[in-house]
Specification:
By secondary structure, the chain is of the alpha/beta class. It is built from ten helices and five strands; from the N terminus they run βαααααβαβααβαβα. The chain folds into two domains: 124 residues, HAD superfamily/HAD-like (Rossmann fold, 3-Layer(aba) Sandwich), CATH 3.40.50.1000; 62 residues, Putative phosphatase, domain 2 (DNA polymerase, domain 1, Orthogonal Bundle).
Amino acid sequence: MKKIFPVTTLFLDIGGVILTNGWGHESRKLAAEKFNLNLSELEDRHHLTFVTYEEGKLTLKEYLNRVVFYQKRTFTPEQFQKFMFDQSTPYTEMIEFIHKLKEQNHLKIAVVNNEAHELNEHRIKKFKLNQFVDFYISSCFVHFRKPDADIFRIALDIAQVPAEHVVYIENTQMFVDVARDLGIRSILHTDYKSTRSELSLLGLKL
């Protein structure tokens, strides 16, 4: 019989799991409509830049200068930044569930996410993620992005737990596969109900 290791640590994505995506395609589409931008140009410039931006090698100001303010606009960078930040909303049911899961099982919780520095910090503060997250392995802090397996290796090193004691909740299949290849039990998150059901099979108190 295969040994089932107790879960002591939860690795958690943010966008698509406990919050909406921070600056995804739908948000950029809304921005193009609101600010009368050419969506195709916006997307092209974003895709040329976003890896460097999410790895913490560009500031938000530098990113916006390359993607939006490479020519004169009728709106300010501050107005555009506010719009970006306002796109984030919480999945309240999931946040409350993670709170309870941590308390009832005495879990260590780490965020492992791809996100740019200023937006990441805004979301942490606005949605009070520090109330249940112990540390952040964010791409902008460690300069690696998923699907690079090194971001998970760094998370394991910082958490100081073996992979078999970790469960990872993520909404992107490729990232789930990478974590599983490292021996991390991983759940492809689609909704609260299915994720709760999968966690119940791992011996956690719900």
